[in-house]
């Protein structure tokens, strides 16, 4: 995890509408859409789409490779909501012995663990260490070309 300061979401972000055509796409092959669909007047505001509760949302940049198989890579931007109650299966930002980490929250038997998405890193037994959940990752912004 980056040790940079947390970046809080703006409490009342200004609207930043971007062109957002109606066109839906599949990851496989499909028919060709109508070119007229590109000109429909819809917009997309990423604040509206990714930040559900601005007062409890912050952003963090990921370092390291412990979550790669879960789709979170070094350099990705995490949208983290501290108002979401963590449940098994959620990906969390947590403080473990004073270090911020991103891990999946899991129950194994009656014990809670913070688990990496990389088999090189063993599960962290949350009850055995000083752990505190900071928030649930609600979105990941991953850039392909940087």
From TrEMBL:
PANTHER family recorded: LEXA REPRESSOR (PTHR33516), LEXA REPRESSOR-RELATED (PTHR33516:SF2)
Instruction: Name the keywords, alphabetized.
Output: Autocatalytic cleavage, DNA damage, DNA repair, Hydrolase, SOS response
Provide the Peptidase S24/S26A/S26B/S26C domain boundaries.
31-137
List, alphabetically, the InterPro entries matched. Answer: LexA-like (IPR039418), LexA/Signal_pep-like_sf (IPR036286), LexA_repressor (IPR050077), Peptidase_S24_LexA (IPR006197), Peptidase_S24_S26A/B/C (IPR015927)
Protein's UniProt name = LexA family protein
Q: Where is the signal peptide, in residue numbers?
A: none
Asked if the keyword Hydrolase belongs to this entry, the reply reads yes
Question: Family per UniProt?
Answer: Belongs to the peptidase S24 family.
Native source organism of the sequence: Halomonas tibetensis
Question: Which Pfam families does this UniProt record tie to the protein?
Answer: Peptidase_S24
Residue ranges annotated as transmembrane are none
Q: Which NCBIfam families match?
A: PRK10276.1
């Amino acid at each position: 995890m980056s040790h940079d300061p947390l970046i809080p979401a703006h409490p009342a972000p200004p609207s930043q509408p971007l062109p957002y055509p109606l066109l839906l796409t599949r990851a496989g092959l499909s028919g060709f859409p109508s070119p007229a669909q590109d000109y429909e007047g819809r917009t997309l505001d990423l604040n509206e789409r990714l930040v559900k509760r601005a007062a409890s949302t912050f952003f963090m940049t990921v370092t390291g490779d412990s979550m790669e198989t879960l789709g979170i890579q070094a350099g990705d931007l995490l949208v983290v909501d501290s108002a979401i109650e963590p449940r098994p299966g959620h990906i969390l930002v947590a403080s473990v012995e004073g270090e911020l980490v991103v891990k999946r929250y899991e129950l194994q038997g009656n014990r809670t663990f913070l688990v990496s998405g990389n088999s090189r890193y063993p599960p962290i037994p949350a009850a055995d260490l000083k752990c505190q959940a900071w928030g649930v990752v609600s979105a990941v912004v991953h850039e392909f070309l940087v």
